[in-house]
Protein: Type II secretion system F family protein
Organism: Billgrantia sulfidoxydans
Amino acid sequence: MERLMQWLQPLSDRFEDPESIQLAFASLLGLAIFALLIAVMFVVMGLSDPLRRRLRSLEASGASGTANAETGLREWLGPMGERLVPTEEEARSRIALELRRAGKRSPGAVNLFFGVRLLLTVVPPILLLLVVVPFVRLEPVVSVMLVAGSAIAGYLLPRFWLERAIKRRTRLLRRGLPDALDLLVVCSEAGLGLAAAIQRVARDLEISHPELAEELHLFGLQTRAGMDNKAALRDLEERTGVDDIRGLVTTLLQSMRFGTSIAMTLRLFAVELRDKRTQEAEEKAAKVSTKMLFPLIFCVFPSFFVVALGPPLLGAMAALAGR
């Protein structure tokens, strides 16, 4: 912090002059207006393009179960984000894969992500410059730092949301995998094939574990569309990104390759997964005592000492004062 204040000291000394303050405010206001015009130009160019308008209408008509609010956001923010999508195929594929792992598989999810990032980067600084800075007396350095901080926070917020969404969906998928494995073992031992068993399990898990049921249902759609079971399993592994599902896919692919019983393979993997979960639970239970040490020392013990030793100390002080 001291180094930052030393770096900003010449800037604050320069802004002590009223003319410099007016010039800085006019520059920030002009930059905000320029950014707003660029954003409006992106919106107008995207909305006026008949090809993109037709593609968006086809996406909206072909997507089932999509909320109206999400469709409206895609129509407004998609054209803005399309200009910001990375041109490198590797970066674009990485963002698309992360959105798929977060549960966003619509065709315009990447454009919507970058459109939201542009909106959160541009709009809060503009609002600060037009609403807060002119009517609140702040130091010029504080105003500049506030505007820059809001822009940086708006740029990083979509990435933070994406990482949280991936972690949440991964946790839900891992939570529903043991039940799915038990049902797969029962269906396989009853004589169903792998694709039929997965479709039946997807129907049974729609209420208890909807995220995992959605992934398994998509696997069934891919196999019914003509995709090979191995390719569909690889795609399931890639779009979920869960280690347990990766291990299950590897086990099933090895069983298909060597011709062993799928039911026996699933039963053995279910036993291994159950042992792994038991070990993870024991590890977390062993860490509880260490994690509870700091709350006990800093929260429980001070209050206990006050309650236990407070009255005797007060009595001793009163006795000494009376003597």
Residues 60-67 have pLDDT under 50 and may be disordered. The chain has 13 helices and no strands. The CA atoms of residues 29 and 194 lie 63 Å apart.
